[in-house]
Design brief:
Layout: E1 9-14, H1 22-35, E2 41-46, H2 48-51, H3 58-75, E3 83-86, H4 92-101, H5 106-110, H6 113-119, H7 128-142, E4 148-150, H8 156-172, E5 183-185, H9 220-229, H10 248-260, H11 265-272, H12 277-303, H13 306-335
Parallel strand pairs: 1-2, 2-3, 4-5
This protein binds tryptophanyl-5'AMP.
Length: 341
């Protein structure tokens, strides 16, 4: 088989594991919306198969799946432009994931930092699915022959592993270029939004205290309170960006401001040079409320119409399967599976 060129196609996904943070919004959802009108095919998935690698209450999983598609739409993704769907409705993900379980090596999985972080000292007790997680993620991306994957910094290693799996498959079966080498797209000031109480950790939906994160559904008062209580240092906003070096808490708040206002960090520092936190934090809270409140209001409205959300997911799944299934069948043929036609 000769080398193939792949047209640009964007794929990304978010786990419906309950609660969406400002990190998910700035690191992922907002950037999905920004790519939507680039003239490229875009697929944004609710990765429910990935969610169940750790225990999910079934009723909550259903709720979180609908809430995530509501967030996609409320933030500005248009189901007529982007393909919005949930992973379990397109069986090709799980099927290609199995092929990749047989391509990826144990040693590769053992190096995954997210697995090590999540499993901790409990590696013997976590699910097999949690261990195989990155191989399914590779299938999500490669079943569409996607070339670009917008993600936050924490997913970089998984996208790199996806490239290793693609390269090994292409090489083992002598099909150069069959799977593309997808690029992680990690751009902008908020690819790693940090915990408001401890800026050495990323902001995450699973952190212990609610005060350490902003949720997309927090009300104005809660957002103001959380920023007010966010940890900072005694110095205020410096005169230049270099003045944020070695100050992770300060850097985080300025990055968040920059991402929310679609400005560079330089521009924010120039605007607030010399200001104290007493002035900056309320301005940041006001900006966050101005951006998030319309989205959470619209999410709440959409959640009143679950049938409509399910319809969006169903139609998206049909369009996604129309791309994924032929690609899966080509991979089956390459591997040597007999398919009765
Ligand atoms: P998940 O559900 O943990 O997070 C979804 C997206 O949000 C980004 N993100 C952040 N960005 C900046 N700062 C933060 N504090 C922050 N927290 C989360 C994540 O980087 C991610 O882009 N494995 C993926 C889901 C997935 C996927 C895929 C992604 C499954 N298959 C295929 C891309 C392509 C995950 O757990 O994301």
């Amino acid at each position: 088989m000769t080398e193939q060129t792949h047209t640009k196609r964007v794929f990304s996904g978010i786990k419906p594991s309950g609660g969406l943070t400002l990190g998910n919004y700035l690191g992922a959802i907002k950037r999905f919306v920004d790519t939507q009108d680039s003239g490229v095919e875009t697929l944004y998935c609710v990765v429910d198969l990935h969610a169940i690698t750790v225990w999910q209450d079934p009723a909550q999983l259903r709720y979180a799946t609908r809430e995530l598609v509501a967030a996609y739409v409320a933030a500005g993704l248009d189901p007529a432009k982007s393909i919005l769907f949930n992973q379990s409705q397109v069986s090709a993900h799980a099927e290609l994931g199995w092929l990749f379980n047989c391509v990826a090596r144990m040693g590769w999985m053992n190096r995954m930092t997210q697995f090590k972080d999540k499993a901790g000292k409990n590696a013997e007790k976590v699910s097999l699915g949690l261990y195989a997680y990155p191989s399914l993620m590779a299938a999500d991306i490669l079943v569409y022959h996607a070339t670009h994957v917008p993600v936050g910094e924490d997913q970089k290693q998984h996208v790199e592993l996806t490239r290793d799996i693609a390269a090994k498959f292409n090489n083992d079966f002598g099909v150069p270029g069959f799977f593309p080498m997808p690029e992680p797209v990690i751009e902008g000031p908020a690819t790693r939004v940090m915990n408001l109480r401890d800026a050495t950790k990323k902001m995450s939906k699973s952190g212990e205290s609610d005060m350490e994160r902003i949720n997309m559904t927090d009300d104005a008062e809660t957002i103001a309170k959380k920023f007010k209580k966010a940890r900072t240092d005694p110095d205020g906003i410096p005169g230049e960006v270099k003045g944020l070096d070695g100050r992770p808490e300060a850097r985080n708040l300025v990055d968040i401001y920059a991402a929310l206002s679609a400005q560079s960090v330089e521009a924010v520092v120039a605007e607030y040079a010399g200001a104290g936190w007493g002035a900056f934090k309320p301005a940041l809270a006001e900006l966050a409320v101005a951006k998030l409140a319309p989205i959470s209001t619209e999410m709440a409205r959409l959640m009143q119409a679950p049938d409509e959300l399910d319809r969006i997911l169903g139609q998206g799944a049909e369009r996604a399967a129309a791309i994924a299934t032929p690609n899966l069948h080509k991979a089956y043929d390459i591997v040597g599976f007999v398919r009765s036609r």
